[in-house]
Design goal:
The complex is a heterodimer of chains A (137) and B (842). By secondary structure, chain A is α+β, with helices and mostly antiparallel strands. Chain A is built from three helices and seven strands; from the N terminus they run H-E-H-E-E-E-E-E-E-H. Chain A has a five-stranded mixed beta barrel. Classes of the chains: A alpha+beta (137), B alpha+beta (842). At the A-B interface, helix 1, strand 1, strand 2, strand 7 and helix 3 of A face helix 14, strand 3, strand 5, strand 11 and strand 24 of B.
């Protein structure tokens, strides 16, 4: 066997090892109910802001504490605590992807990704709404 | 129905040219293919003449289409969907181009124009050594790509399925709203939706064209390799392909880092690289391009690595199309911050077909021809340059595969129905691998230059390597002592890996600089490779220092407790650094070495843009001010009250202090309507307010203290008061009344933290004074900020520029540019990149 072949095999082996170690770190997407079933496990939660509940954010006292409620597509609800500043488009978001863990009565969120209609002009519904904003009778 | 005010002609003209250009592209694909395979020279000439004609017509058509889109957007013709979606009246004219490539359709158009320009250059240079004989093959591929891209913007229905989204569709046909049934609807459409606020930045004007040009250039090595495979002339294409590959590596590399610089300057994710899928997807083709470049050089010098060269020349374009698939079909979904969303099922299918159309046949052809591609049976010596260059190519190639597999997890989820999500710390999962790759690449680029092709004498190598090795080791040790890397978050093992990478990068930089000095005797024009490698090493050094020693100085871990009054007991977690700091107006707050005060806010010239003036003071131990500067991060407050935050940076040669607003009040709803409540008080009297009480200690005549400096000639009275708050704090305050020739002046004192305003209203009888107390109905004025210090970040940009210059130097050498062309090219690249990356901020 040639040296280069050995090196290629070593490279492939390194690649596989790298991807395997990566797969150990992987987490999952969950619903609120399935997340409750595994408290303390790091996972991704897909839900929406529950607009019927108040959002608590008082930056004067503490800029790093945000509390709100989320509801998922199956109707399950949870309180969410995010120890960071409030993402600007939170109220407007259509969908929230939250990364974190279920802890006791709430979801301890480390990172929030918002899906906001404003950034996605191709959405038909948004366009319809946009028309009523930019036109005036 | 007849609609008033619509101008339909530009759209019809544009649509006509889309169709004409598409036909021209189809014809030129066929003609170039015919020309490639024609045996008879006369027939070949004929086919190629037709092919060039149709190709040029197609490019002219694209330019006309682009001009019409520009015209429609510039004139705010909102009857067109594209203008309505992307332009608006308040949009500054510098963003007019940017709003064209904001959308899917416009960016496809931009990409095809880049292909067109490259195709014209290849046609123009068909007799030069860098193309000679390969024009038909390259142009067949480019023309085919043009057909695909034009289909994406065709907008024609075939049995209810819309093929492509046209740039010229009408708003009333696209949006289903009652207003569009009125004949005079256009008079009600006041404005378009405009360019997304987040994208209003000069990088949005320059980054997309450069990046798309980078994507487009990968088609040329692909075209050469395709030519080699179909003609079985496997060897002759490599030499002319090298300058093109250098060009591609340069433009794509710069384009990618422009995105990084943009993210760093204007988006608030706190850095220039986040391993976001969109970034990864464009990095992967670049990595493979670099692999291909090195195997091409190996083949030119020794005849080895020809098979790998074919593969590495084909793959960059395949991965460019794959990255288009990842970022534009919405498949990345929740994993990316800035992927495009899907633009319809039909387009998604078409993009997938585009990927297949280029990837499958080219890889099958490669597999079929694999055995017939000549390979040297004798293997490379392990003391030869080609052996280690090949190893370096493999390192880049495997890194690319690693990154793309990780990035493709959402695709895996879609295909197999799994729900795998990214790990907790996405960046670290990449960084730990990247650190090891940096070690390998640093060492390889340091040593390999000193090796000779075929075989190298050991004593020669050792003699050459001793000095750079010693110098690099000394520098590393010196830096470790004076300015140690302190990234302890991931443990000592990772810090060790960072140090190793750091040494390797310094080693590479020193070795390449010395190579130019000692071996090339300072002949820079022959040292393109050494310059590029040195630049890459400097880039690595910059990345390592700026990320390892990045510091969040707004962190409450650095500041002690942020704001004692109401810290939530829940938040005092050790492993959770709280990185936002609230600055109350006029209250100086300690942040790292600085005392930071939020001074005032001001409006920008764009509607809804608000700047916050933050004063940074650095004092020495004697409390003398050593330095003062002001940064003005801003937020856009959009019509719907949502905000977009743009950082501001104080740049030093050796570090950046980078601040953005993480939360701000919306002042529109925040007007003060409260009145002063006047109390008559004697010295020693007490007045209550809602959050505590106020004691008048004394009335001072012409007070002379930190705030006021009255002398005996003034006529001023100060009320020395102490405010006792309900949370057991005592704060001194002194409102002053002053009389001079101008009249009476009140110098109020404000306790922002208590929302309390005090005024010395006047003097009453019996040694009483009138003290005005106002508790503002206005919320306290404050901003919440996040501030980073990025040390030595300029090395990142400088390294990139040097690398790009090195690639260009190699390109002009191998492309046999004349001295004048060389001077112009190098001058242009140096000035343009230096200006963009180092001087033009924000």
């Amino acid at each position: 066997m040639k040296k280069t072949h050995i090196i290629i095999l070593v490279g492939i082996a390194a690649l596989i090892v790298g991807l395997l170690t990566y797969s150990i770190d992987l987490s999952t997407y969950d619903t609120i109910t399935s997340a409750r079933a595994k408290p303390g496990k790091y996972l991704h939660l897909i839900a929406k802001l529950d607009k019927t509940q108040p959002i608590t954010y008082d930056p004067i006292n503490n800029p790093n504490y945000l509390e709100f409620h989320a509801v998922d597509s199956l109707g399950a609800q949870t309180k969410v605590v995010y120890r960071n500043s409030k993402p600007t488009d939170l109220e407007k978001s259509e969908r929230i992807v939250m990364k974190g863990k279920m802890e006791g009565d709430h979801f301890e969120c480390k990172e929030i990704l918002l899906k906001c209609p404003s950034k996605y002009k191709d959405n038909k519904e948004t366009l319809k709404k946009g028309v009523s904003e930019t036109t005036s009778y | 129905m007849n609609f008033t005010g619509e101008q339909l002609f530009p759209g019809q003209l544009g649509h006509l040219f889309i169709i004409l250009s598409l036909f021209a592209a189809i014809l030129s694909t066929i003609f170039f293919a015919k020309g490639s395979f024609a045996k008879d020279p006369a027939a070949q000439n004929m086919w190629l003449r037709y092919a060039r004609g149709t190709f040029i017509f197609q490019v002219v058509g694209l330019v006309i289409i682009f001009s019409i889109v520009f015209y429609i957007c510039a004139n705010h013709m909102y009857e067109y969907m594209y203008a309505y979606k992307h332009a608006s009246k308040e949009l500054e004219s510098k963003y007019l181009l940017a709003c064209i490539w904001e959308g899917q359709e416009g960016s496809f158009l931009l990409w095809s124009i880049c292909h067109g320009i490259l195709g014209l250059i290849v046609i123009g240079k068909r007799k030069a050594a860098m193309v000679k004989g390969w024009e038909p093959y390259i142009l067949t591929v480019i023309s085919l790509a043009q057909v695909c891209l034009l289909l994406m913007i065709l907008g024609v229905y075939v049995f209810d399925v819309r093929i492509g989204n046209s740039l010229f569709t009408l708003t009333r046909n696209e949006i289903d709203a009652p207003i569009f049934s009125r004949p005079d609807y256009l008079s009600f459409v006041k404005d378009g939706m405009g360019l997304n606020i987040l994208l209003r930045n000069y990088w949005m004007v320059i980054h997309p064209p450069v990046l798309f040009m980078g994507f487009a250039t990968t088609i040329i090595p692909f075209g050469f390799a395709y030519g080699g495979l179909v003609t079985k002339n496997f060897k002759d294409w490599v030499k002319p392909a090298i300058p093109w590959t250098l060009l591609s590596a340069c433009i794509l590399g710069v384009g990618i880092m422009m995105g990084g610089k943009w993210a760093y300057e204007s988006l608030s994710f706190g850095g220039y690289w986040a391993w976001d899928p969109v970034e990864n997807a464009s990095l992967v083709p670049w990595l493979i391009l670099i692999s291909g470049l090195h195997t091409m050089l190996v083949f030119q010098a020794t005849g080895h690595s020809l098979r790998a060269t074919h593969l590495f020349a084909l793959l960059p374009l395949c991965f460019v199309f794959y990255s288009t698939f990842l970022t534009r079909t919405g498949v990345l979904g929740d994993t990316s911050v800035h992927a495009f969303t899907e633009a319809g099922k039909a387009i998604n299918v078409m993009i997938l077909m585009l990927v297949m159309l280029f990837t499958l046949p080219s890889l099958i052809l490669f597999a079929v021809r694999y055995k017939s591609i000549p390979a040297i049976q004798k293997e490379e010596n392990s003391n030869s340059r080609e052996f280690w260059m090949f190893i370096g190519s493999l390192v880049f190639f495997f890194s690319a595969i690693f990154i793309i597999v990780k990035t493709s997890v959402p695709v895996i989820n879609t295909v197999f129905g799994t729900s795998i999500a990214p790990p907790e710390d996405v960046e670290f999962s990449y960084n730990k691998v990247a650190a090891l790759i940096a070690v390998l690449i640093g060492l390889l680029t340091a040593v390999t230059q000193y090796l000779k092709y075929k075989t190298t004498r050991k004593d020669y190598l050792l003699k050459k390597l001793v000095l750079p090795t010693v110098i690099a080791a000394l520098i590393t040790v010196a830096i470790a002592m004076i300015y140690p890397l302190t990234y302890s978050k991931q443990g000592a093992g990772f810090l060790g890996a960072i140090y190793l990478a750091f040494f390797a990068a310094i080693y590479s930089f020193v070795a390449n600089a010395m190579y130019i000095w000692t071996t090339l005797k300072g002949r820079l024009l022959s040292g393109g490779a050494a310059i590029a490698h040195g630049g890459f090493a400097l880039l690595l050094i910059g990345i390592l220092i700026s990320s390892a020693n990045k510091q969040v100085i707004s962190s409450s871990m650095v500041n002690g407790i942020n704001f004692a009054a109401g810290t939530d007991p829940m938040t005092k977690q050790q492993d959770d650094p709280l990185e936002n700091l609230t600055l109350i107006r006029d209250v100086p707050t300690t942040m790292g070495d600085y005392l930071v005060t939020y001074k005032k806010d001001s409006l920008g010239h764009e509607e809804g843009r608000k700047f916050f003036e933050l004063e940074f003071l650095r004092k020495n131990k004697q409390n003398e001010i050593k330095e003062r500067f002001v940064v003005k991060p801003d937020v856009y407050i959009m019509k719907d009250n949502n905000m977009s935050s743009n950082p501001d940076t104080k740049s030093y040669l050796y570090k950046d202090v980078y601040t953005y607003i993480s939360f701000a009040l919306n002042s529109a709803k925040n007007q003060d309507t409260a009145q002063f409540d006047i109390r008559e008080m004697h010295e020693g009297d007490t007045a209550k307010y809602s959050k505590g009480y106020i004691v008048l200690n004394a009335v001072q005549k012409n007070p002379n203290n930190e705030r006021f400096h009255y002398g005996p000639n003034h006529l001023a009275l100060g009320a020395d008061v102490t405010v006792y708050t309900n949370d057991n704090k005592q704060v001194k305050a002194m409102p002053v009344i002053e009389v001079d020739s101008m009249g009476v002046m009140h110098r109020d004192d404000t306790l922002y933290a208590q929302n309390l305003y005090l005024r010395f209203e006047g003097v009453a009888d019996n040694h009483h004074i009138k003290l005005g107390i106002k508790e503002s109905s206005q919320l306290i004025d404050f901003v919440t900020v996040k501030t980073y210090v990025f040390p030595f970040i300029n090395l990142v940009w400088l390294g990139l520029i040097i690398m790009a210059i090195g690639l260009v130097v190699s390109m002009v050498q191998r492309g046999k540019f004349s001295p004048l062309q060389t001077a112009i090219t190098l001058g242009f690249v140096t000035i343009a990149l230096g200006y963009m990356f180092l001087f033009a901020g924000g």
